[in-house]
Amino acid sequence: MKRGSSPSELVCFTVLSLLSTMLGTACVQPYSTTISHTSNKNLSPKGFVDIISTGTRQIWNKKVPGTQMEKLRSIIQDKYGVKFENYWDFHEWSIKNYSQFWEEVWNFYEVVCSKPYDQPSRRIGDRIIDVEWFPGAELNYAENILRYRDDGVALICVDEDGKELNVTFAQMYEEVRLYAAAFKKIGLQKGDRVACYMSNRREAIYSMLAAASMGAMFGGPLPFYGPKTVAAIMNIMKPKFLITVDRFQFNKREFNTLDSLPEIVNDQEFIEKVIIIPTREGSKLKDISSVNNSCFLDEFLKRGRNSDGNIPELVFEQFSFNQPVFINFTSGTTGLPKGLVHSAGTFLPLLRDFGLHCNLDRTSVTLAMQPASIKQL
Ligand SMILES: *[C@@H]1O[C@H](CO)[C@@H](O)[C@H](O)[C@H]1NC(C)=O
Ligand SMILES: *[C@@H]1O[C@H](CO)[C@@H](O)[C@H](O)[C@H]1NC(C)=O
Ligand SMILES: *[C@@H]1O[C@H](CO)[C@@H](O)[C@H](O)[C@H]1NC(C)=O
Ligand SMILES: *[C@@H]1O[C@H](CO)[C@@H](O)[C@H](O)[C@H]1NC(C)=O
Q1: 373 touches ligand 1 (CB under 6 Å)
Q2: Atom of ligand 4 minimally distant from the CA of 268
Q3: Which mutation among 161, 163, 164 tests ligand 3's pocket best, with the greatest number of atoms within 8 A of CB?
Q4: What is the pLDDT of residues 317-348, one digit of tens each?
Q5: Are 287 and 261 contacting, i.e. CB atoms less than 8 angstroms apart?
């Protein structure tokens, strides 16, 4: 993962736990959160490292048998004729033999690709980042996320009022298919950008995967940012489409997105369409005419259907491992926010984190409170 260019501008290591759905894990996705960081109250003000190291205590020491970590470890021991005495031996091997290690992670999690890699990594310079990963491989980020298409629960969407809605893996796939078809109809192409400015909602996931299916990039500001910062981010990102909400609630506070939208989009000629998700009964009665080129979600999704009502098949265009997929923005505490590009291959470290380290599988549920974009500390 990359960081902002100055140390005071930290990209938080939060991960949209949707990515854990690659492991078939259900993800609880509250629209926003009421959890406050009460435990941070008495911390020294020095910084992130102090915060995470203060008061660290062991909360779990049960031995779980047959973890994914142990399975991978024994595969590697057998294959390479090595013997790891403990976790740190294995860790050392994994960083000294990083090419083999990531190749084994790739195989272990059965990365979906249409063309295999020529080699797991190739040095292209002397610096630590001068490595080309999995050259030759062709794959699609969204295809890897959407590998399960059954009736297991993929998303448990919960809002602050306690309303709950479940989305299965099959439903999620169908939604992405519809979003992709609609985006294609209105002109989204490889290399274009889709901006997202909304609270933590399932529509962000559908539009992100739809964009990734055809090689478009996805990203945007946190929903809490005001119109000036958001407009600045739009200017950097130059998205063709913006997907957003009329309003949202965070910690009982009401945020009215619609009011900010004219200032955000009306002078940005590159934004061809603003798609507004009506979040409540009655939202659709709101007047959106002050937002140039805007429409409600329904109208956008209607475009995805053929005249006979059918939805075209979802096509996963095939790209290299380093195909850009996300643009994540730094908080902008030192000047304008900076956009960091993450490639298709970013799901591999997440498999390491959620799979090897957290041992998540189809029986697990993870909580993701953060909206798309980085999370500000
Ligand atoms: C970058 O943004 C994507 C999409 O919002 C998210 O899934 C990912 O976790 C972000 N990466 C970081 C390092 O914050
Ligand atoms: C792993 O790294 C060690 C230390 O650099 C080296 O001796 C060993 O040959 C490597 N193993 C493989 C399989 O490449
Ligand atoms: C959603 O799925 C979870 C986990 O399977 C289940 O406990 C919950 O009752 C479901 N909620 C609804 C509204 O169906
Ligand atoms: C957006 O709308 C405003 C008035 O509502 C108009 O002056 C402006 O030219 C429009 N911008 C674009 C890019 O269409």
Answers
A1: yes
A2: 13
A3: 164
A4: 999 999 999 998 887 777 888 899 999 999 99
A5: no
| Confidence (pLDDT) at 152 | 96
Question: Is 245:198 a contact under the CB 8 Å cutoff?
Answer: yes
Lookup: tokens for 242: 């913006």
> Is 0.70 topped by the overall pTM?
yes
- Pocket of ligand 1 contains residue 11 by CB under 6 Å: yes
pLDDT score recorded for residue 112: 97
Query: Would you place residue 219 in the very low, low, confident or very high pLDDT band (cuts 50, 70, 90)?
Result: very high
Bridge-partner residues for 365, per DSSP? 26
CA distance 277 to 31: 13
- pLDDT per position as a tens digit, 244-276: 999 999 989 999 999 999 999 998 999 999 999
Residue 368's nearest CA partner among 257, 204, 254 is 204
How many angstroms is it from 15 CA to the middle of ligand 3? 23
How far apart CA 202 and CA 30 sit, in angstroms, is 9
In the Cβ-directed half-sphere of 48, how many Cα atoms lie within 13 Å?
9
Beta strands in the chain (DSSP E): 26-30, 113-115, 121-123, 131-133, 138-139, 153-158, 164-168, 193-197, 217-219, 241-245, 247-250, 253-256, 273-277, 294-296, 324-329, 339-343, 365-367
pLDDT reading at 165 higher than 90 = yes
Query: Which of these, 72, 136, 67, lies nearest to 102 by C-alpha position?
Result: 72
Note the pLDDT tens digit of each residue in 94-151.
Answer: 999 999 999 999 999 999 999 999 999 999 999 988 999 999 999 999 999 999 999 9
Contact 327, 218 (CB under 8 A): yes
Q: Is the CB of 269 under 6 A from ligand 4?
A: yes
Task: Give the residue from 275, 267, 202, 288 showing the smallest Cα distance to 245.
Answer: 275
